[in-house]
Amino acid sequence: xxxxxxxxxxxxxxxxxxxxxxxxxxxxxxxxxxxxxxxxxxxxxxxxxxxxxxxxxxxxxxxxxxxxxxxxxxxxxxxxxxxxxxxxxxxxxxxxxxxxxxxxxxxxxxxxxxxxxxxxxxxxxxxxxxxxxxxxxxxxxxxxxxxxxxxxxxxxxxxxxxxxxxxxxxxxxxxxxxxxxxxxxxxxxxxxxxxxxxxxxxxxxxxxxxxxxxxxxxxxxxxxxxxxxxxxxxxxxxxxxxxxxxxxxxxxxxxxxxxxxxxxxxxxxxxxxxxxxxxxxxxxxxxxxxxxxxxxxxxxxxxxxxxxxxxxxxxxxxxxxxxxxxxxxxxxxxxxxxxxxxxxxxxxxxxxxxxxxxxxxxxxxxxxxxxxxxxxxxxxxxxxxxxxxxxxxxxxx
Length: 397
Hints:
five-stranded mixed beta sheet, about 35% helix, Alpha-Beta Plaits, about 400 residues, 15 helices, 2 domains, 18 strands, alpha/beta, TIM Barrel
């Protein structure tokens, strides 16, 4: 199977530019041994490379490239398959863009192609190449420092409820995880994460929805004992819980009042990845929530198929980008493009954005550079049962 990988990267500061010809010559020999062909472009700072060949060989070569310390900030732009090579005339050829004008280098690259029709008309690889040559990728390319550029200094645990105190809050269990603004060193909200017991898996679907709603009374009671004055509390609800359970919104508001919480203090997060079969009734429930002063967020945005449809039916106050998109976003061109599209859309609609599931410093640094300011994940704090966990704040190393 013929495979193609395209990536861009940044030349390491301690690598002399004059060594690039030797680098390209060595790569050419190695690629020829693996039956891998392609084109390498260099603009004085960044590399852009197209690799083509048998899938296993391309992955082997790319693995070596990822571990090469002569460059960093490697971002994979495209991984695809096709019937024929674009650049079959060279094992690897280097084009130093400083020696060409934009028009001539494109023609020079085309001349190296073995399938000019494919390269000339609507070929994705060629479009990526053209963008790099014309330096249009810079608006979407953020340089991320090494992971050890930051230390993460842990605060003391803020608050907790012991087992005896928690026993009076209900039969359900919750852990709490902060949503933070790292540079402001501020907790902006707490999410109450439901911890279902083993018997929950045996419940019918309607019983799951009833349990989902009923459990929020425990979350509110625990929040009161933790003393969350000045903070908002986020609780997750399955979308269909608002539809299937009679008077769901009214019951939610009663549970808040019982714990001396006000609606403006609560954010209801509905998950995108559950199928919403009665959309009109769901939309009506959302109107009731917002009319009562309760904020609404779409959780796990991007995980399911309903996110964009929900945005056309109602606009939430916040969205939380799903962990699967956040994971290794600093290395993935497609994920970066998706995040940037989400940010542009939410900016137009004045919807706040949170990145959830952040685990690596590089993920956080790229997302911060892209324009996200609120984060949730184990990099900063892991959920704590019956308590507000310690937060690890970033400090420059």
